[in-house]
């Protein structure tokens, strides 16, 4: 069994936005040379999340709107005493920062409308994206 790892960096442009990184991850899987195995994708940050969903602009805005409704900025959070971004941390904690998917015959097993979407909640920033492959 082989392993492969690579980090990518990208910049977000807004305080809150959804960034589609699907093509970057697909290229990484190809570059790894691993045809069958497991793919782990992680955004190693506490104020951004990773989801698998449709990359349509309306849905991206719906995600941001619903998260803001659930965890509004200035919601009286204890963490805001430190740096005023508790809402960003809470959103990331609930959604998560990593996903594991199978890779079969060189392709990522995912639904037709499942793109890799980064939800930025505390930008703009330079973010890292970690891609790990394990298999044959």
Structural features, described:
This protein is of the alpha+beta class and 136 residues long. The chain has one domain: YjbQ-like (Jelly Rolls, Sandwich). It is built from 4 helices and 8 strands. It has helices at 22-32, 57-70, 80-83, 86-95; strands at residues 2-11, 17-20, 37-42, 48-53, 98-104, 107-108, 115-120, 126-135. The strands form 2 sheets. Strands 1-8-3-5-6 form a 5-stranded antiparallel β-sheet, covered by helices on one side. A 3-stranded antiparallel β-sheet has the order 2-7-4, with helices on both faces. It starts with a strand and ends with a strand. The relative contact order is 0.39. The mean pLDDT is 97.
Task: List its traits.
single chain, 136 residues, alpha+beta, 3-stranded antiparallel sheet, Jelly Rolls
CATH topology: Jelly Rolls
Round the Cα radius of gyration to an integer and report it: 16 Å
Number of helices: 4
Sheet-strand content, in percent, reads 35-45%
Order of helices and strands: EEHEEHHHEEEE
Q: What coarse outline follows from CA principal-axis ratios? A: elongated
Largest sheet report: 5 strands, antiparallel
Tell me the count of domains. Answer: 1
In spatial order, strands of the major sheet run 1-8-3-5-6
Instruction: Note the gap between the termini.
Output: 5 Å
Based on secondary structure, the structural category is alpha+beta
In CATH, the homologous superfamily goes by the name: YjbQ-like
User: How does CATH name the architecture?
Assistant: Sandwich
What is the class in the CATH system? Mainly Beta
Strand elements, count: 8
Percent range of helical residues: 25-40%
Low-confidence stretches: none
What's the mean pLDDT score?
A: 97
């Amino acid at each position: 069994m082989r392993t492969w790892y690579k980090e990518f960096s990208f910049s977000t442009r807004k305080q809150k936005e959804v960034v589609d990184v699907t093509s970057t991850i697909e290229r990484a899987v190809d570059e790894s040379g691993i045809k069958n195995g497991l793919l782990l994708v992680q955004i190693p940050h506490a104020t951004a999340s990773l989801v698998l969903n449709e990359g349509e602009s309306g849905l991206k805005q719906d995600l941001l709107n619903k998260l803001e409704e659930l965890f509004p900025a200035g919601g009286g959070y204890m963490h805001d005493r430190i740096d005023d971004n508790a809402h960003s941390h809470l959103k990331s904690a609930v959604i998560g920062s990593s996903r594991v998917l199978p890779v079969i015959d060189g392709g990522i097993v995912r639904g037709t409308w499942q793109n890799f979407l980064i939800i930025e909640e505390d930008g703009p920033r330079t973010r890292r994206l970690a891609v790990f492959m394990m298999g044959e």
